[in-house]
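Notebook p. 47: complex prediction with manganese (II) ion.
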Amino acid sequence: MSDPSRRTALKAAAAAATLAVVGFPNLARSQTRMFTLPPLPYADSALAPVISANTLGFHYGKHHKTYVDNLNNLVKGTAHEGATLEKIVADSAGKADQAGMFNNAAQIWNHTFYWNSLKPKGGGKPSGKLAAMIDSDLGGYDNFRKEFAATTVSQFGSGWGWLVVEGGKLKVVKTGNAEVPFTKGQKPLLTIDVWEHAYYLDYQNKRADYVNALIDQLLNWDFAAENLAKA
Ligand code: MN
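Predicted complex, structure tokens below:
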């Protein structure tokens, strides 16, 4: 074992074995198209103090991840295997016998959309086309701000508040549980999660404080503008 060339050979063999082990799951994933937890667009402390690192860590690392793990188990051996996330959501929506499939797929989609709907030092008034549409469709920024907060806060139980485009106009809507606007012909621009896990560690029962803080300090209007351009 003290022979340097033998040590080098052993090291090379170990490195090759590591590569093979690392490489195999990647290959398997690409063949079966398993879903993966998309990376957060920022550090889990980046939205503090509006959303604490503790809340973000649990929300992303436990809740969002669990939906990914659940869906990977659920799609195995079904007609959904190999389909895109959006197709699974669309195809399982409204089908009682596929509620688990829909809930987990839609919640993966919703959470990825939610992380992107927020950014550090966001919030406030948008500019450009969005500002003009808020004026023409929603009665100006101050009205939008009130309506988005009121609609989102009033979602009974778990769900989501949304800014969407429908028929070329901006609209504020809410959905319950895992429901998504895009199965109803509405194109989402921004969302706020009002499941209790999104705010209870930081705001307890004060859902309105959480929603208003997101609107004023975290909304990512750049993401909304990208979605509007694709709508
Ligand atoms: Mn959530």
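Notes: The longest helix spans residues 4-32. Residues 4-42+51-116 form a domain with the Helix Hairpins fold (CATH 1.10.287.990).
Next step: compare against the earlier run before touching the bench.
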